[in-house]
Design a protein that fits this description.
Layout lengths: L1 H16 L4 H7 L4 H8 L7 E3 L6 H9 L9 E3 L8 H10 L9 E3 L8 H9 L6 E3 L8 H10 L5 E3 L8 H10 L5 E3 L8 H10 L5 E3 L8 H4 L10 E3 L8 H7 L7 E3 L8 H10 L5 E3 L8 H11 L5 E3 L11 H7 L11
Parallel strand pairs: 1-2, 2-3, 3-4, 4-5, 5-6, 6-7, 7-8, 8-9, 9-10, 10-11
Helix pairs in contact: 1-3, 4-5, 5-6, 6-7, 7-8, 8-9, 11-12, 12-13
Pfam family, one: LRR_6
Protein name: F-box At3g58530
Organism: Olea europaea subsp. europaea
Length: 343
Amino acid sequence: MEVWNRETVPKVMEIVSNRLPQRDLISLLLVSPWLYRTLSSHPSLWLVLDFHEMNNAGNRLVAALSVPRYQNVKHINLEFARDVEDKHLEIVKTKCRNSLGNLGVLNLNGCQKISDNGIEYITYACPKLKAFSIYWNVRVTDLGIKYLVKNCKHVIDLNLSGCKNITDESLKLISENYQELEELNLTRCIKLTDGGLQKILLYCSLLQSLNLYALSSLTDEAYRKISLLNHLRFLDLCGAQNLSDDALSCIAHCKELASLNLTWCVRITDQGVISIAKGCRSLEFLSLFGIVGVTDKSLEALSSFCSNTITTLDVNGCIGIKRRTHDELLQLFPNLKCFKVHS
């Protein structure tokens, strides 16, 4: 029995612990000295620090990174964690930097007490960072992005959604330093203009995902250049009130596009949608919510070219489309599973 406890139980727990949440895994350390030694000796169990929505997360982060088992952490999630401030990230920079040398993913979404200085502190310690997300932070400015591109040269996934104080200067920095960028979220970055976006479209040609949700001031001058993104699969243009059929026809050159959100793109008519149907034949997700200028002609074109691929189609509020019942849509799109994206 003693041999079984010492040898078999730790091996079984090691296998099981790979599937456990971080909190449960830490609790297992307290079960017995044998488990503590076994679990602590396997680095693969300690690659993630998840403090999302937790209280006192700043102090928790500093404490965790001071523990040897977290010296090779790859992913830190502080999404909507409370009590994370610049001072905590400064401590991480000065005392825990060695633990972050291999960090690849950093989620600071909703951490609204972090400023440009905090970004400088944490990114300084993360030279291998590939994914950085700081959604809903109005304290971040172009200076924070300057620190990011200076300290982290390998970012391919960047979420700046809701960072309302960044300007075209940030997009210039991103375009010059992140030409391997694959995902970019600029939702509600309301100070951006056509000029800044065009730099991204010209230099970040490997983009696969681009979120321009609620950027109503952009115009066709920028939208036309989206056609340069040959690898684009996801595009959110919700609220693009200046988007015309002509620009949408240019976007139709993105042959790999699988997800397209045109909600409240009020200038669009059948002409633009038919261009998308003919050009984007891998389309799986399409929202036309609230567009009164499209008719059944759009559905007929989409059915002709994308009937086997589309699984999500929202035409609610499209008063020009008469064949809108579930049964009628299923006749046109047999693989349709979702009929409503917006509520």
